[in-house]
Automatic annotation (TrEMBL):
The active site is at residue 366. Keywords: 4Fe-4S, Iron, Iron-sulfur, Metal-binding, Methyltransferase, S-adenosyl-L-methionine, Transferase. It is an enzyme of class 2 (transferase). One of its GO terms (molecular function) is methyltransferase activity. S-adenosyl-L-methionine binds at residues 245, 272, 292, 340. This is Class I SAM-dependent RNA methyltransferase. InterPro entries: MeTrfase_TrmA_AS, NA-bd_OB-fold, SAM-dependent_MTases_sf, U5_MeTrfase_fam. One of its GO terms (biological process) is methylation. Belongs to the class I-like SAM-binding methyltransferase superfamily. RNA M5U methyltransferase family. Signal peptide: none annotated.
Length: 413
């Protein structure tokens, strides 16, 4: 049964929040100041109708919006949306007692996402390929996607056909599709064990469609061309399922900010280095020690550096920085540090950096909550927070990146 609600503000995940006698009620696809009807279930509700719309409500860019769970905020006017993301970072830092001027959000353009993770499942009506409905296991098949690069959208029918060929399960499975300089790199997960004939048919299909690679659960099934991306002009052949920043523009913006901060550092430690998006750019002017827990990513970084020209010395170290962070004594060998951890942040590593004498530190994060925690550790350890720049690369989602730059007076050794 539906009821009438007034939306007071947006929550951290982009849902509108209405105050009720039993607490906050979260209603997706609504905006502050709106009056709506919604069907309530505990602390969440499904939007039924907008009775009084906010002046900031706009027409969504995609026909699948509100059904497909890929986007949460297509209905939000662009400038207000950007300010909301910027304020999200500011509010989170302020909650840790960090009062710093937050830079303007680096905006994300439509049609720029180079990596998407699609959900697939065989149904009675055929293969479903798309995204999960908001807070639901149901898969909504898509015919368009205004966040993704055109190469991905143009391949949706062929990707659905490939999903049909590799499907060996009644459950849903995932296709991570990445646009590379060599073509589409398709990494499939949890699709079931392929038979020999399935493997042969899928391989022939990949060859015929001009895809760069197909892997299943990180096993390469066929690789007509090595998927290559470039970091600062350095070509890197990435492993299956490799982590990449979602858009090239956001990656370059982050690299420019980090590189500018570390330009005086002769020796830099790149922690959680991945395939080298920071390390290989920084190596144009600094010696770089790249530390990464994933062997395949580190190997890709190493190969890229060895075949590149004009780089300073690049060394690599495989190390689980969650279990064994670089100690402050090890860090003292460097003039600069950049760290870009997963969403969990780098609490233990931050404690070691805080104890170190490294004069320049750049913290990159996809989670304002763990960033605030880690920055608090660094500030309490004697670092001064110089700037924070929020960066949008997950368009129309609640996710926001940030790059924080810190300095500490260098001690004489």
């Amino acid at each position: 049964m539906s009821a009438r609600f007034s939306i007071r503000k947006l929550g951290a995940q982009g849902d509108g929040i209405a105050e009720t006698e039993t607490g906050d009620l979260f209603i997706p696809f609504t905006l502050p100041g709106e009056t709506v009807t919604a069907a309530r279930e505990r602390d969440r509700a499904m939007l039924m109708a907008v009775l009084e719309a906010s002046p900031l409500r706009i027409d969504p860019a995609c026909r699948h919006f509100t059904e497909c769970g890929g986007c949460a905020l297509q209905h939000f006017e662009a400038e207000a949306y950007r300010q909301w993301k910027r304020e999200k970072v500011a509010h989170t830092l302020k909650g840790k007692g960090i009062d710093c001027e937050i830079g303007e959000l680096v905006a994300c353009a439509p049609h720029t996402r180079r990596r998407v993770v699609l959900a697939a499942r065989r149904a009675d009506t055929g293969m479903l390929l798309g995204f999960h409905r908001h807070l639901s296991p149901e898969i909504i098949s898509i015919e368009e996607c205004p966040i993704s690069l055109p190469e991905i959208v143009a391949a949706l029918d062929r990707l659905k056909a490939l999903a049909e060929l590799v499907c060996a399960t009644t459950k849903s499975f995932r296709l991570a599709v990445t646009v590379t300089g060599s073509g589409l790199d398709i990494a499939v997960y949890e699709s079931g064990k392929l038979g020999d004939n399935q493997r042969r048919v899928a391989s022939n299909f990949v060859m015929a469609q001009g895809f760069a690679r197909l892997s299943i659960d990180d096993e390469i099934i066929i690789e007509p061309r090595k998927p290559v991306v470039t970091f600062g002009g350095v070509a890197v052949a990435i492993p299956p399922g490799a982590f990449l920043q979602a858009t090239e523009a956001a990656e370059q913006a982050m690299a420019d900010i980090v590189g500018g901060h570390l330009k005086r550092a002769k020796k830099v430690a790149d922690l959680f280095a991945g395939c080298g998006s920071f390390a290989l750019r920084l190596a144009a002017r600094s010696e770089v020690h790249a530390v990464e827990g994933d062997a395949a990513a580190l190997s890709a970084l190493d190969r890229g550096s060895r075949f590149a020209t004009g780089l300073k010395r690049v060394t690599g170290e495989r190390r689980d920085l969650f279990r064994r962070p670089l100690t402050f004594k090890e860090l003292n060998a460097f003039d600069g540090v950049v760290f870009d951890p997963p969403r969990a942040g780098a609490e233990d590593q931050s404690k070691q950096i805080a104890r170190s004498d490294v004069p320049y530190v750049a913290a990159v994060s996809c989670n304002p909550v763990t960033l605030a925690r880690d920055l608090r550790i660094l500030i309490d350890g004697g670092y001064t927070l110089k700037s924070v720049t929020p960066i949008d690369q997950f368009l129309w989602s609640p996710h926001v990146e940030a790059v924080a730059l810190l300095e500490k007076p260098k001690k004489r050794r």
